[in-house]
Specification:
502 residues; 7-stranded mixed beta sheet; two-stranded antiparallel sheet; binds guanosine-5'-triphosphate; EC 3.5.4.25; hydrolase; RibA; GTP-binding
Length: 502
Amino acid sequence: MHHHGPDCGHAHHDADAALLDMLTGPLPPSRKTMLSRRDAALDPLLMAAAFASGPHVTRHHYHHDFFPGVMVPQEEGGLDWTKFTGEDAGAKQERKRLTYVSRQAPRRTRVQQGLVTEDGKENDRPGENVSLKQAEAPSKKRRSSTAIVSPSPSAPVPAQKPLSESVTPLKVLPPVEVKCMARTRIPTPHGLAFLHLYHNNRDTKEHLAIVIDSAQLSDAQHSSTHIRSQSLDSVWSDTETDVDRITRGAYVGRLGPLSQHASAPHSHQTPASSSSNPLPAPLIRIHSECFTGETIGSMRCDCGEQLDEAIRQISQPVTPSSEPPAQVPGRGAVIYLRQEGRGIGLLSKIRAYNLQDLGHDTVTANLMLGHKADERGYEIAGAILRDLGLGSEAGEGVRVLTNNPDKISALEKEGVKIVERVPMVPRSWKARNPHLAVIPPNMSGDPLAPELKVKVEIERPVGATLIGGSAVYGEDLDKYLRTKVLRMGHMLPLWMEDPEAA
Ligand SMILES: Nc1nc2c(ncn2[C@@H]2O[C@H](COP(=O)(O)OP(=O)(O)OP(=O)(O)O)[C@@H](O)[C@H]2O)c(=O)[nH]1
């Protein structure tokens, strides 16, 4: 922090002297090779140091005029010194020079505007509001001179804007938009998936859709039952080639050295035959990122197994209602949202875990840290589902894998048509209480007999997506699951407390 005391900048400063010494003094023999003189590059620094020790220039000016951004790295035109690596960027590209540009209106104008009083003092604007940016800055008297980096030294000098203009009012957000940037085939232990990466206009995170629909591999034609991204398959520019399209994943069928069919743009117009579609509605899950549960196999939560289980269940073959019934590949998607820790982020979640170790539950821990129990949003998920043609009002709707009633209502608010909720019973509960493994047939399109289901789920081979495989069981996990039921209304039977519940 710099100061604005009355003596600021006028007195002799030891630091300035030390700096000058360092720049101009003879180097000790031992340092000669380590710190060689680079006079040209240091010129502006020397000037600044010299000016800073002069009688009329304070250290305040020194920082702001020559090194804007020393204190406020995000300052417009400032250099972000937090990213300074010490490497000589000029070695690779043409050296960029610091140029001094004043953004201040002439004094005459400033006096007229009441910015400078007769006695020569700079004033704050009368009656101005302090913008957020100013509130963060150490001084309200910030000058608007700045140094910018060429090559735009001759950029027009903008007149000072009235402060009211620079105070950003709370804006109504534009409608959420998503664009699928790329898609690729991913083989998983449960079967084939197409990973879709999305960008959006709300945050800078790369949200994902794991689409399971292996039928589109063999069928080169676009069918209304295929789960395809409209934004990915659309034409992005007049000049894009088939290779561009195929590279981002806008192809149909299977991609191979001898099979390259760029997809055609399409819209998700519901075909007239949608009511006669014999397939069960696609099964989807909206999953929130959980580094601990998914990547390092944490047994504090059930996130890892939920992701694995969702991909497994969606991949299960389904039986169409047509005659004769024959199994066809399952289809659906996991929308993978980058909202770690129910939206509070990994750092806060780690702190929350420590509070949980002190005896608080997951909801209280969040509240103690100043967060809500759940800070997630589902607008982006809604937009991704629309882009994939899933759950549209006129279409077949979706079946949703969840126990969380809030998620169901949030999705319905986004206009997602949900025809069924499919519960996610924790594997460890099913393993200890086989009754739980029997899912009523109307709750799932899974035709497997209950006995077979239990066997598949408990003895399934360890998948690469879940460290520790099916052995997910522990005190922490049971505590977490109990809290989800009791404090967040998750729709699961608490069978340990109440054997009847199962
Ligand atoms: N803040 C916090 N987040 C957690 C904790 N444990 C897991 N999470 C996060 O919770 C999210 C998963 O949410 P859950 O509440 O487990 O399940 P859900 O998605 O709401 O509900 P289901 O659809 O039924 O699974 C992930 O983002 C995890 O990182 C915790 O103790 N504290």
